[in-house]
Amino acid sequence: MPHPLVPVPTPETQPFWDGCEDGVLRINRCRACGDAYFPPSLICPECSSTDVEFFDATGDATLYSYTIQQKPFALWDSDGPRSVALVRLAEGPLLTSSIVNCEQTPEALQLDMPVRATFVPFDEITVLCFEPVGEQP
Amino acid sequence: MIPPGATAIVGAAESTEIGTVPDMSSVGLAVDAAANAMRDAGITAADIDGFTCGYFPVADMSRQLGIFPSWADNTVVGGCSWMFQLRNAVAAIHAGYCNTVLIVYGESGKSTRGLGQSFDAGQRGGTGQQFDMFYSGGQAAATFTLPVVRYQHEYGLTDEELAVGAVSQREWAVDVPRATLREPTSVEEVLASPMIAWPIRRAMCCLVSDAGGALVVTSSDRAKDYPKPPVYVLGTGGALEAGVMSPGGVREPLRPEFIRTSGDAAFGSSGVTHADIDHLMIYDAFIHNPIFGLEGLGFVEYGEGGHFIAEGHTAPGGKLPMNTSGGGLSYAHTGAYGMLCMLESIRQVRGEAANQVADVDIALCHGWGGYWSACSTLIFGNSAP
């Protein structure tokens, strides 16, 4: 049995997880009202339509807020501090994630900085994280 | 609409011991608190026909207490579950489903004895488990606090100003014999405490405690027959928002609508205004919670809550006494603090708090559940309108 906190996909969320394996951020969009939303669901949280689809998002986002965990969850392959972040996707949804591939310091983690989706092995599956775009401070 | 003061708290108690209680399980703490609350109300199980408990199988717990209720509720929304249950009990009593409700809570949060410390948002395949908890391992200090950096950035709240909340609450706790932390502290000491999840230091996080608590609620016409002065339930509110175990599900994290929804319902149903509130409890699992509560409930404008606390308005001598037991940061915090939060409001309205504020006629208690999944607002008074 994997650790209890290793994500277990369900039929409704499987396309998102397949996207992670393929290196693509795949989220839901409502065909009726156009709302893009996350996490995956069979119903649009904006207009209650069930005419919804998965689509490949740009992966572009900005850093909304964050904390820096001093002792990360043991399943992450890191001893030092590690960010937990709120990230605003270009398509609109706000989601919890982590900023990787940069220093885990307040200086490196600037609010509103552009980040993009990156996909990281985590125990038995691949999960969504984000990394800074462009020059590192 | 339920008239303000239609019901009243006639029994209220904590477990005999709180803090570190390794010789009791969660069930034991709950039963001990239930016995104390029934004794406080001068009744036995035979007088109770409604029952709620939250983290335990409700029928198991009622049978253990010898209660055979005709109405029961087991709403679980995290730390403010018992506040939701009180709101439901008020409605049930008003509807005539039952006359007298016992609301029971116990949690061996520190000693972890027995069952019942779970608000299990991490169930396999659930939304929280799939999309949120693994980033932090579910560490509350790293996730519940996620909006803090944004708040500081938007509203210019320094770490020093943020730290004042912990100092103010310790000032209250100094005079509270049952509080876990009673030594005065300082901004410097708070900021020098170990970093847990930047910018959150240990002294900005709640305690981890063992405790139980229980309430007896009945209709106001019956309430006058009990030994203690009734604490009337004037207004109630409750709302859900974030969904998963972090503020990522809050639509506008710096202006969470569910707080306003809950507060408006409580004020609207009570008929009182902000100026009538003599005493305030805002559930503080972490230092930022009261800031968002003050703003969302409308005591101050958005962006002003942090500075309001930093200026000392909620500390001893301030114009809005808040978290007078010392709160989750200094008094006790089991994991689900909602019951303990309500009990301090009730003690203040009864006039029997360790740190009694003068002339508390009306008190407001606001609690959270599942980080920002849920909140509830209750307004208590020492008379019915």
Walk me through the structure.
The complex is a heterodimer of chains A (about 140) and B (about 375). Chain A has about 140 residues and is mainly beta. Chain A has 1 helix and 8 strands; from the N terminus they run αββββββββ. The N and C termini of chain A lie far apart (about 40 Å). Chain B has about 375 residues and is an alpha/beta fold. Chain B has 15 helices and 11 strands. Chain B has helices at about 25-40, 60-65, 80-95, 125-130, 135, 140-145, 145-155, 160-175, 185-190, 220-225, 255-270, 290-295, 305-310, 325-330, 340-350, and strands at about 5-15, 50, 70-75, 100-110, 195-200, 200, 210-220, 230-240, 280, 360-370, 375-380. Chain B has a 9-stranded mixed beta sheet, with helices on both faces. A two-stranded antiparallel sheet of chain B has the order 5-6. The longest helix of chain B is centred in the first third of the chain and has 16 residues, at about 25-40. Chain B starts with 6 loop residues before the first strand and ends with a strand. Chains A and B meet through β4, β5 and β6 of A and α4, α5, α6, α7 and β5 of B. β4 of chain A pairs antiparallel with β5 (about 195-200) of chain B, so a sheet runs across the interface.
